[in-house]
Amino acid sequence: MNETMISLDDMRLFAVVAEDLSFTRAADRLGMPKQTLSRRIAALEKALGLQLLHRSTRRVRLTEVGAGYARKCAELVLLAEEAHREVSLNRAEVVGCLRLTCDQFLGETLLPPILTEFAHRYPKVRMELSITPRKVDLVAEGFDIALRVGETQDPELIATRLGPAEIRFCAAPSYVARFGRPDRPRDLVDHTCIAVVEGSARPKWPFLMGGAPAWVPIEPRLRVNNYRIARQSVLSGLGISVLPAIDCGQEIEAGELISILEAYLYQPGSIYLVKPGRRYLPARVRAFSDLVVERFQIQPG
């Protein structure tokens, strides 16, 4: 038997002939010429090395082996159709598990309202969110989407720019009233700095100096690996820190925070939505991507 010559379509044709026991009726159902159908079944028998049908001028009958083969063909065709429906549903309907990854800031500030809205829109989707400072390998680790600051050079990924990752150097009015306002980056040595850092590396803050970007090392009074704690410490008047503009703009406008060192502001990059570069993405991935882009388009500023 030459198994490579047997296709699921051949099995489907035989299952219809076996059900109708008539090449004429089967050909009508299948929408193909009777002669073509007869040749296909004959080729199937040749590939199997078995006679599946008894043919006469008046009728078609199944052989014993043909009857058993017809049952298996019908079962396989049904399984294939069911698999196709499931795959088509996954492509068209927003269902399944959406796996996301981002850093701590994006996970604590930007994502929660988006996740809430997405959950309300698409109740059939489960979500998994991994908060990590490292750049996760989306393809190897099975993630659908990453939100990142900075571009990606990986040709297997598609990156959509969402907006600038703008920052502000901030202090509370109570801190400025007690210790004054630094006029230049070098003045920070005389101030209490709060830095969000991972590990033991010395933190560096980005400044625009002489028209060029410069990453200046600082000696923080408080090192913390939790962005929310750093932000709250600034609001309470403990010291100065660098905060994402999108998460401190309202406080600056309300007078709860003061933006300092504005002449030295350097914007270190942009926020990107990154996803695998597969041609066919599940509907849940496309729906979440569209929602994130939609939310960023209406962000103030």
TrEMBL record:
GO molecular function (one): DNA-binding transcription factor activity
PROSITE patterns: HTH_LYSR
Organism: Sulfidibacter corallicola
Pfam families: HTH_1, LysR_substrate
PANTHER family in the record: HTH-TYPE TRANSCRIPTIONAL REGULATOR, TRANSCRIPTIONAL REGULATOR-RELATED
Annotated InterPro entries: LysR-type_TF_proteobact-type, LysR_HTH_N, LysR_subst-bd, WH-like_DNA-bd_sf, WH_DNA-bd_sf
SUPFAM superfamilies per record: Periplasmic binding protein-like II, Winged helix' DNA-binding domain
Keyword Cell inner membrane part of the UniProt annotation: no
BP-aspect Gene Ontology terms: DNA-templated transcription
Family listed: Belongs to the LysR transcriptional regulatory family.
Gene3D superfamilies linked to this entry: 3.40.190.290, Winged helix-like DNA-binding domain superfamily/Winged helix DNA-binding domain
Top-level taxon: Bacteria
Name of protein: LysR family transcriptional regulator
Chain ranges of the HTH lysR-type domain: 6-63
Keyword field: DNA-binding, Transcription, Transcription regulation
